[in-house]
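In the current project phase, the collection of sequences with tokenised folds has grown. One resulting record follows, to show the layout:
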Amino acid sequence: VLTPSRAEVQLPPPPELDQELVVVELADLLQFFGNPARGLLKRRAQIYVGDQDEDVLDEIPIALDGLQQWAIGERMLQAHLAGADLADIRIAEFCRGEVPPRRRGVDVLNRVEHEVRQISHTAAPWLNEPATSSWVSLDLGRFRITGMISGLRDRTLVRVGYGRVRGKQRLQAWIELLALKAAHPSTPWRAVILGKGARGSILGPVAEVDARARLSELLQLWVRGVSELLPLPPNTAAAHFAARRHGGNQYAAADAWKLECDQSWRQFGLNDRLASLQRRPAQPQDGPGHGSAFDVLTDRVWAPLVAEEGAL
């Protein structure tokens, strides 16, 4: 029986992993690495802890928090990138009833529209080619990864979001890039991730042998992560890796963890202090290195990504 209050929980592998051929949906892999704690709870205990921004507003808000404003900005950005006029998008947002009334709402939409225009301008050079999708199906040992990848512009996977580019978006684009290269090795795929602010990220091209090796590593972690909690919150891990390896902000990981430590992580007894994430010492199966499991697993996931990454 799953005891969500213990970060050291160890469950037997699910029976489907004993099959001769294990089919893994790419979407499941992306969701897992977006939040390993939530993925474990959902898969093994049928406990679903949703995003805070998934809450539906029951009344007209007087003021918006950051998540509510992000949701409005993301809708407006994606609609605008799809070709909708911003004036029409503003009217639609007022009709949804999720912006404050009167002048407050106008001020919110003015600010969001300005940021949407900036992001769209930055992304424009990467959006000249029409968007297409590609089905991927690839075998790695006894595992088969399948799924559809959208947002392809010629040979580039383009991801544009309203928020700043953080670890979660970078890691998910990295996984999709590896899957593309492993499934379609003759194409020199790249991935571009853009958002609010001046700094974006570009990944690849990656050699086929490296793509298969890196994807196999992540698949091994996924197999472990459906039986035990892997301390790998993506935004926190990315900030931690940058601080340890590249002289980044020493406090960025602690700040990221305060935001990322949602109810799914708290179900395992963790709190919003970074030390709670570093509590478990590294074991040989975590990979080479010393320190906490968080330290070693962070290096294992993020070192290959950063080695293939450039700034925009």
